[in-house]
Amino acid sequence: MWLQKEISLKPRSRGFHLVTDEIRAALDEPMQIKTGVAHVFIQHTSASLTLNENADPTVRADFESFFNHAVPENEPYYQHTFEGSDDMPAHLKGSLLGFSVQIPITNGRLNLGTWQGIYLCEHRNRGGSRRVVVTVHGE
């Protein structure tokens, strides 16, 4: 069985945001699929997805600090600058983190670890709403 849904995530400020509950709600957990895989893909090049700590918000703040240090704005070698000083770094951060995650499905639910959550990594100062496509395959 295959299932695919497009989810529109509300606009968020720059940073790392838990979106696990929004994705679960859109999938109507528990699903009819008992065993399978969910592929979650963001349709943008200046935001990304990753899995990590879902309990302590300082982890998300540290992610933002690290990536701002690792990929700073206003570097003199950036050529793609007409969309703002945050745009080229956003593309680089997106490529470093990636635009999709895969999560196993067990007994109709996303089988995340106890302390795992899905992050929307918003790399733009004003990124707007983001579209995510979730494709589920299993039986």
UniProtKB/TrEMBL annotation:
UniProt-listed InterPro entries: UPF0047_YjbQ-like, YjbQ-like_sf
Matches recorded under Pfam families: YjbQ (PF01894)
Coiled-coil parts of chain: none
Similarity-based family: Belongs to the UPF0047 family.
Name this polypeptide is given: Secondary thiamine-phosphate synthase enzyme YjbQ
Protein source organism: Kushneria aurantia
